[in-house]
Design goal:
The structure holds two protein chains of two kinds. Helices cover about 35% and strands about 25% of the residues of chain A. By secondary structure, chain A is of the alpha/beta class. Chain A has one domain: 3-Layer(aba) Sandwich (Rossmann fold). In chain A, the strands form two sheets. Chain A has a six-stranded mixed sheet, with helices on both faces. The longest helix of chain A is centred in the C-terminal third of the chain and has 18 residues. Chain A is globular. In chain B, the strands form two sheets. A six-stranded mixed beta barrel of chain B has the order 3-4-9-6-8-7, surrounded by four helices. In chain B, helix 2 runs antiparallel to helix 10. In chain B, strand 7 and strand 8 form a beta hairpin. The relative contact order of chain B is 0.19. The chains are: A alpha/beta, B alpha+beta. Chains A and B meet through helix 2 and helix 3 of A and helix 1, helix 11, helix 12 and helix 14 of B.
C-alpha cells in the first residue's frame, strides 16, 4: 500500500507541574495517499494533540511516525519546520491570515520559507505559484485584497490556497468550517473535497461536526487518548 | 528567507504601526543627535582653542620662575614664598645672546600685576604689564592707532600707557581717538600713546583688556619687586617654529648655568606653545569624551526603549509567529525577521539623529557667531560613522533578546495564543 501516514504507538505526555497528563496513550493507524479522513472525538480526547503530531508541529513522547516516507518523530525543530513547509498544508478554524498583507502575499508566505531552489530568490516563480493557487480556490479576482476586505468564506479560501501552494503531501484542516455559517461551510467543504479529487492530496479534517464527518470516507475516533472503535 | 525579503517585511511591519515606531525611533534620534552635537561642540572647542593658541605664534616660548612641578598650580603663579631664584633682566640678556642661544630670535622680559585704571570717573581693574619695546615684536602686536613703547620711554621712565582695545572700551566707551588722553593707573597719571588691535582669546585668556607701560616705569613706580632687575616672565621668540624645542633646550642650559641648579631640579619653567597645545588638547579631549559619554547614555536608553517595544511586539504577534512557524519558518527566519525590525528602527533613528545633531551643531555655531565668539562646531565624518554604526549596533544588540524569545516560541503554544 502507498501509505502517506504511518503512526505506530504514538504517545504524548504533558507535564503540568507535578502531574503528568497522558494525551495520547498509544495510537496506531495508517492513512493511504489520497484518502479523506476525519478525526473526531470529544474535547480532551487527544484530538488536538494528534493533529499537532500529525502536522509535525509537535513531537510524540514515544512512538514512530512516518510522513510521506520520512520518519519525523525525532527530528530537530528546524528539520520539522522544513517538513511542515514541504509536506503539510494547514487550514485553521480562524483562518490565521496576516491581516496587513494582501491575499496573494498571504498565499506566498510558505514559499518564502521554502529552501527549494525552485523558489529561493525567485520572487517571480513564487508569485506565479501563488496566483495558480488562488485560481484553484476561485479567488483570481481578489488577489490584491486584504483579509478585512474579504468575507469569512473568502478568507478561508485564501487560507486553503496557502495550504496547497507548496503541493503538500497532506492537508490538515482543523475545524475548517467552525467559524462559517452552514451554507458557506458547505462550500468550503466542497472546495476541499474537490481539491482532493483533482490533485489527490490527502485530506485530514479534525472536527466534531458529524455532518462534516459524514462526507469523508473514513473517520478516526478518539476517546481518552486511544482509538475508539472503527479505524 | 533572504535578507531583502526580511527588509521589506520589516519595513511593512514598522509602517503598519507608525506612531509606535515613531516614538521608539525618537529615543535613538535623541541619543544620536546628542552624540553628534556633543562631539561637534567638543571638536569645535578644541579647534577654536588650538586656533587661538596658534594665532599667538607657534614660535613663542614662555619662561616662568619656579620648577615645572610648582607651575602645575597655574602658569605665572610661581612667585614668592619659596627658595627659587627669580628671573632677572640679566637672565633675559643672557638668553638673547646669539652665540649662547642661536635659536632665540628675541627676548621680552615683563613684570605683571593687577591695577585699577580710570578715566573720568570710570574705572576698571585689569592686568598691568611692564614691558620692553621688544614685547610688541615678540608678541606680534599690532597697533590700531598711536605707537608702542620705545627706548626713549624706557630710559625716561615715562608715564605712558598702551591700552588693549577692551581696556579702552571699558573706561572710554570707545577705542579710537583716545591717544593723547591722560588716564590714571593706581591714581598716577599716564598718557595714552597707543591702542592695540583686538586679537581675541589667548593662552591666558583674552589679552585685549590689558594695559602696557614701560618696564622701567612699572619697576620704579607701580609693580615694585624685591630687586631692581627681577622679572615675572620672559617672552622668547624662537627663530622658527621648528627651532622651538631647540630654543627651549638652549634657554634651560643658560638658566641652569646662571642659577647653578642641577639637572632635574630647575627653579624655572620653559613653556612652549606646543606644551599649551598639548595641555588644551588633553583637556578638550577629556571634555569631548565626557560629553560623548553622556550622550552615549541616552543612546543606551533609546536602545532599551527598542528592546521594550520589540518585546511588546513579540507578545502581540505570538499568533503570527506561530503561524509562520507552522508554515515552515525556521528559528533563523524568525530571528532575522525581528532583528531586521529592531536594526531598521535604530538605523532610521540614527539617520534622523545625525541630521538633527547636525542642525543642533549648526544652531550652536550660529548662536556663537551672533555673540562674536569664534567657535564653529565641527561635525566630523568620524562622528557620523560612529553614530551610524553605534545606533545600528544598539538595535542589533537590544533586538537579540526579543528575537530569540520570538524564535523559541513553540508553534503549538503560539498558535493557541489569544
Amino acid at each position: 500500500m502507498d501509505w502517506v501516514i504511518e503512526a505506530r504507538d504514538l504517545r504524548k505526555v504533558y507535564k503540568m507541574g507535578e502531574v503528568e497528563v497522558e494525551a495520547l496513550r498509544g495510537v496506531s493507524f495508517n492513512i493511504q495517499r489520497g484518502e479523506v479522513v476525519a478525526i473526531m472525538g470529544p474535547s480532551g480526547s487527544g484530538k488536538s494533540t494528534l493533529m499537532n503530531t500529525l502536522g509535525c508541529l509537535d513531537r510524540p513522547t514515544s512512538g514512530e511516525y512516518v510522513l510521506d516516507g520520512e520518519a519525523v518523530a525525532s527530528l530537530k525543530d528546524d528539520q520539522l519546520a522544513d517538513i511542515r513547509n514541504r509536506k503539510v498544508g494547514f487550514v485553521f478554524q480562524s483562518f490565521n491570515l496576516l491581516s496587513r498583507q494582501t491575499a496573494i502575499t498571504n498565499v506566498e508566505l510558505p514559499l518564502r520559507y521554502s529552501t527549494s531552489t525552485k523558489y529561493l530568490g525567485n520572487s517571480k516563480g513564487r508569485r506565479e505559484q501563488a496566483i495558480q493557487s488562488l485560481k484553484a480556490v476561485g479567488l483570481a479576482d481578489r488577489m490584491t485584497h486584504r483579509p478585512f476586505e474579504l468575507s469569512g468564506g473568502q478568507q478561508q479560501r485564501v487560507a486553503i490556497a496557502r495550504a496547497i501552494v507548496n503541493n503538500p503531501a497532506i492537508i490538515m484542516a482543523d475545524e475548517p468550517t467552525g467559524n462559517l455559517d452552514s451554507k458557506v461551510g458547505k462550500e468550503i467543504m466542497n472546495l476541499l473535497l474537490n481539491l482532493n479529487k483533482e490533485s489527490g492530496t490527502t485530506l485530514i479534517i479534525i472536527t466534531h461536526d458529524p455532518v462534516i464527518a459524514e462526507q469523508t470516507r473514513r473517520v478516526i475516533r478518539l476517546r481518552d487518548g486511544l482509538l475508539d472503535g472503527g479505524s | 528567507m533572504t535578507l531583502a525579503q526580511a527588509f521589506l517585511e520589516a519595513l511593512e511591519s514598522l509602517s503598519g504601526n507608525k506612531l509606535r515606531s515613531g516614538l521608539t525611533v525618537l529615543g535613538i534620534v535623541i541619543g544620536v543627535a546628542a552624540v553628534i552635537a556633543m562631539l561637534a561642540v567638543g571638536n569645535g572647542a578644541q579647534a577654536s582653542i588650538t586656533g587661538s593658541i596658534t594665532s599667538i605664534g607657534t614660535n613663542l616660548l614662555f619662561v616662568f620662575r619656579g620648577s615645572p612641578e610648582s607651575q602645575q598650580q597655574g602658569p605665572g603663579g610661581g612667585g614668592s614664598g619659596n627658595n627659587d631664584r627669580p628671573l632677572t633682566l640679566a637672565d633675559a640678556e643672557a638668553i638673547s645672546d646669539p652665540f649662547a642661544a642661536p635659536s632665540v630670535e628675541s627676548v621680552a622680559p615683563a613684570i605683571q600685576g593687577n591695577g585699577t585704571i580710570s578715566f573720568a570717573g570710570k574705572n576698571s581693574t585689569t592686568t598691568i604689564s611692564g614691558v620692553t619695546p621688544d614685547y610688541s615684536v615678540v608678541r606680534n602686536l599690532e597697533l590700531a592707532e598711536g605707537e608702542f613703547i620705545n627706548q626713549e620711554h624706557m630710559l625716561g621712565r615715562m608715564s605712558v600707557v598702551v591700552l588693549g582695545p577692551e581696556a579702552a572700551d571699558t573706561i572710554f566707551g570707545r577705542h579710537d581717538g583716545v591717544v593723547g588722553e591722560t588716564i590714571r593707573i593706581e591714581g598716577q597719571p599716564f598718557r595714552v600713546i597707543g591702542v592695540l588691535v583686538a586679537r581675541g582669546g589667548g593662552a591666558f585668556g583674552s589679552e585685549d583688556g590689558e594695559a602696557y607701560i614701560p618696564f622701567t616705569t612699572a619697576q620704579a613706580r607701580l609693580l615694585k619687586r624685591n630687586s631692581r632687575d627681577e622679572v615675572d616672565i620672559l617672552f622668547v621668540q624662537a627663530t622658527t617654529a621648528e627651532s622651538v624645542p631647540q630654543a627651549a633646550d638652549e634657554i634651560a642650559n643658560i638658566l641652569r648655568q646662571r642659577h647653578r641648579t642641577p639637572i632635574g631640579d630647575d627653579d624655572f619653567t620653559v613653556f612652549t606653545q606646543q606644551d599649551f597645545l598639548q595641555t588644551f588638547e588633553a583637556i578638550t579631549g577629556v571634555l569631548t569624551i565626557f560629553l560623548g559619554g553622556i550622550a552615549g547614555i541616552s543612546l543606551l536608553v533609546g536602545g532599551i526603549g527598542i528592546m521594550n517595544i520589540m518585546l511588546v511586539s513579540v507578545t502581540e504577534r505570538t499568533r503570527e509567529i506561530g503561524l509562520r512557524k507552522a508554515l515552515g519558518a525556521r528559528r533563523r527566519d524568525i530571528v532575522i525577521q525581528f532583528l531586521t525590525e529592531s536594526s531598521l528602527l535604530s538605523l532610521i533613528g540614527g539617520i534622523i539623529g545625525i541630521i538633527f545633531g547636525w542642525l543642533i551643531s549648526f544652531a550652536v555655531g550660529q548662536i556663537a557667531a551672533a555673540n562674536d565668539t569664534a567657535f564653529v562646531p565641527i561635525v566630523g565624518a568620524d562622528a557620523v560613522v560612529l553614530a551610524t554604526v553605534f545606533s545600528a549596533a544598539v538595535g542589533l544588540f537590544f533586538g537579540i533578546y526579543p528575537a530569540n524569545r520570538a524564535a523559541s516560541l513553540e508553534p503549538v503554544e503560539a498558535l493557541r495564543y489569544e
